[in-house]
Structure formats: structure tokens, C-alpha cells
Amino acid sequence: MNENINKMELKKQIAQVQFMLEDLQLYLNTHPMDKNALAKRNSYVKQLKTLRSEYDKLFDMINQNDSLSAYPWEWIEEPWPWEYEANYKL
Hints:
This protein is mainly α. It contains two helices and no strands. Helix 1 packs antiparallel against helix 2. The chain starts with 6 loop residues before the first helix and ends in a 32-residue tail after the last helix. The relative contact order is 0.15.
């Protein structure tokens, strides 16, 4: 992973992988025997874990359910997700 990657670019990559993962999972609900789709889905799961881990290491928790927190509790950081600064431009 590029060490000079910025926070918004990493968030964008995570969102892209999450979208692809969700789309493949919906497809697999109706096509469970598609080996290629399942392989792609599993690849995206690994990629998402790597991206989230990198984000957690470089910045802060991206998801409070699967990230460890140092003391004190770190989930509440500014900006809040609904604020403009916390989101990337499409």
C-alpha cells in the first residue's frame, strides 16, 4: 500500500470495494453455484480487510465494530461522518 495515500482517497477505495462486495453478495444470493463470482467475492473480502486495517493504522477507526481502540475510546473524532469535511468528492 502506498504510504503517502491520503485519508479521503483511502475512504474512497474502501467504499468502492464495499460496493463491489455488496453487489457480488446480492448476485450470489441468486447464483450460489457461480465459482467465479464467489472467488471475486472472497478476493474483495480480503482486499477490504487490508484497506480497513491500513486505514485504522494510519488514521483512526473506520468501523467501531471491528477496530481496536486505544485508551481513551477513540470512536468519537471530528469531523462527524455527516459533515462535509468527513466525506470525499465523487
